[in-house]
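We modelled the chain as a single entity of 311 amino acids. Its sequence is:
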Amino acid sequence: MVTLTDVGNVELAGRTAIVTGASSGLGEATTAALARAGATVVLAVRSQDRGRAAADRIRTVVPHARLAVAPLELSSLDSVAAFAEQYADRTVDVLVNNADTTAGRTRTTTPDGFELAMGTNHLGHFALTVRLLPALLRSDHARVVHLSSLMTRLVRSVDPAALERIGRDGSQGDARPYDPGLAYGQSKMACAVTGIELDRRAKMAGAHLCSVVADPGWASTGLFAAAGGEDGLSARATRAVAASSESAARVLVRAATDLTLVGGEYLRPHRLTHGRPVVRRPQAHLTDPRTGQVVWELSERATGCTLTFRR
């Protein structure tokens, strides 16, 4: 498990954190670290049975853990709205947008008609963050963590028209066959861009909200197995050289807790694929304000969720 020394310089007793995709991998390890530091952590998960099993595992190593399990299907905007409604009059201090899905070998869409990776990884988390904003702004120091990926390096620039089309139909803006790697990279690029754009908008509004981006590097999680099978090449390579979930989660934990971060930072392992968490300069297009505005406006249009910094 991630150790207390990875929790940074913040006291989490009395704080509430929400971690999406907390039933395994990075999400479970991050939840354990936050709970060990005293936070009440909500495991926002697709399967409540798997979520309860993860909570039981965490309690074996963190007996005092204060945990709650709540259903959240990020591929459904209705599910996101129902989850956020529970926090209409509550306070959330930390939101870790960790849940992740790979794109299938062929184009698959969410119930709302979006390409699966973009609809789940980005648009679901975008809607969740915007809907939880009133609860976050009740905190005296709210923190939102957005999960990026090494796969953003497949996306060398942002074509707004292509992004809009991939959000809807997975066509990637041209006549090429569906490419699941590029679709996944586009979704994680959108996560990173909106994480930086959220911090930019929070600062302009004078809001007590810090938004950071975390790239865990090459983590040994269930994603590669889901994409290629337990015996697939990517799964075997991951088991051989990737960091464990507990080690990779150190990046997410620092992003969620380190008060020396002022917002807008991009954290990743110091060896790119693995190692201690460090702040690094992201790719230029991820921090371009014009790109941030375009991606943000497209995301608002797609989800019907509009950002406002009123408490």
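As a brief sanity check on the tokenised model: The chain has eleven helices and ten strands. The chain has one domain: 4-303.
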